[in-house]
Specification:
The protein is mostly helical. It contains 6 helices and no strands.
């Protein structure tokens, strides 16, 4: 499995985590303008999955909770986002 596949798999897992959190899927849908059908249709699209990670990365507590649920260091979610987006997003550090 290459790095792109790993990043996509983890982003899909993050989407699952997001859906399991009370109210967060609705917040994601409202924030992104996506519908549930869009989520189903685009769940394999790297650009859509990058958007999922962008949303999760908006709040530190979401990052920490998601990373814990996925058994990975929080930085891994940032790295996955970079892979999915070609590594060209801004770093706010």
């Amino acid at each position: 499995m290459d790095r792109q596949d790993i990043a996509q798999t983890r982003a899909l897992q993050a989407l699952g985590w997001l859906a399991a959190q009370d109210g967060l899927l609705d917040a994601f849908l409202n924030n992104s303008g996506a519908s549930l059908e869009d989520v189903r249709r685009n769940a394999g699209d790297p650009a859509f999955l990058a958007g999922v990670l962008d949303f999760v990365l908006m709040q530190d507590d979401w990052v920490l909770s998601c990373a814990e649920a996925l058994s990975c260091p929080p930085q891994t979610l940032v790295e996955d986002r970079a892979v999915l987006g070609g590594g060209d997003q801004m770093h706010w550090t």
